[in-house]
UniProtKB/TrEMBL annotation:
It is found in: Nucleus. This is THO complex subunit 7 homolog. It comes from the Eukaryota. It comes from Aplysia californica (California sea hare). Belongs to the THOC7 family. Pfam families: THOC7. Keywords: Coiled coil, Nucleus.
C-alpha cells in the first residue's frame, strides 16, 4: 500500500471540508432533503420543488469541489515556482562564493608577486652597486623587464579582484530584491485567500 503524502492529506481535506467548513452541513442538508423527498408521493406539490432544490444543492457542492481542486493545483504550482526560485538563488550564491574564493587565491598570488618584486628591487640595488660590466647590465635589463611584467600582472589582478567585488555586491542586491518579491507575493496570496474566505462566508 502506497504511503499517504502531505499533499494527499491536504487534497482530501479540501475535498471533504471545503474552505469555510460549511460543506459538511450542506451535505447533511442534502441527505435530509433527499430522504424527505423520497417519502413524498409523486403527485405531491412539494415534490418538484424539493427536487429542484436538491439539484441546486448538488450543483453548489460540485462547484465547491471544483473550486477546491483549482485552489489546490494553483497552490501546488506556486510551491513549485518558489522551489525553482529558491534553487536559482542558491545556485547564484554558490557561484558567487566560488568567485570570491577564486578572487582570494588571486589576491594571495598578487601578494606573493609583490613580495618577489621587493626582493628583486633589493637585488637590483645590490647589482647596481657592483662594477659596471656587460653581463651585469644585461641582467639589470632582464630584471627590469621582469619587474615591469610583474607590475602589470599585479595591476590586472587588482582590477579583476575589484570587479569580482562589484559583481558580488550586485548579486547580493538581486537576492535581497528577490526575497522582497517573494514576501510581497506571499502577503498578496494571504490577502486573496482571506477575501475568498469572506466571499464564501457571505454566500
Amino acid at each position: 500500500m502506497a504511503a499517504v503524502t502531505d499533499d494527499d492529506i491536504i487534497r482530501r481535506r479540501l475535498l471533504i471540508d471545503g474552505e469555510g467548513g460549511n460543506d459538511d452541513k450542506r451535505l447533511n442538508n442534502l441527505l435530509k432533503t433527499f430522504i424527505r423527498w423520497s417519502h413524498l408521493k409523486d403527485d405531491d406539490e412539494n415534490s418538484q420543488a424539493m427536487y429542484q432544490r436538491m439539484q441546486a444543492m448538488i450543483a453548489q457542492c460540485e462547484y465547491t469541489v471544483e473550486k477546491a481542486m483549482n485552489t489546490y493545483e494553483m497552490n501546488k504550482q506556486e510551491q513549485d515556482n518558489y522551489e525553482k526560485l529558491r534553487q536559482d538563488i542558491e545556485n547564484k550564491i554558490e557561484d558567487a562564493t566560488a568567485k570570491i574564493t577564486e578572487a582570494k587565491a588571486e589576491l594571495q598570488l598578487a601578494k606573493c608577486i609583490r613580495k618577489n618584486r621587493q626582493e628583486y628591487d633589493n637585488l637590483a640595488k645590490i647589482i647596481q652597486q657592483q662594477p659596471d660590466r656587460q653581463e651585469t647590465t644585461r641582467q639589470l635589463q632582464t630584471l627590469g623587464k621582469e619587474l615591469s611584467s610583474l607590475a602589470s600582472t599585479k595591476q590586472q589582478l587588482e582590477e579583476k579582484l575589484e570587479l569580482r567585488k562589484k559583481q558580488f555586491m550586485v548579486l547580493i542586491t538581486s537576492i535581497h530584491e528577490l526575497q522582497r518579491i517573494l514576501e510581497v507575493d506571499e502577503q498578496k496570496e494571504k490577502e486573496e485567500s482571506k477575501e475568498e474566505d469572506m466571499d464564501s462566508t457571505t454566500t
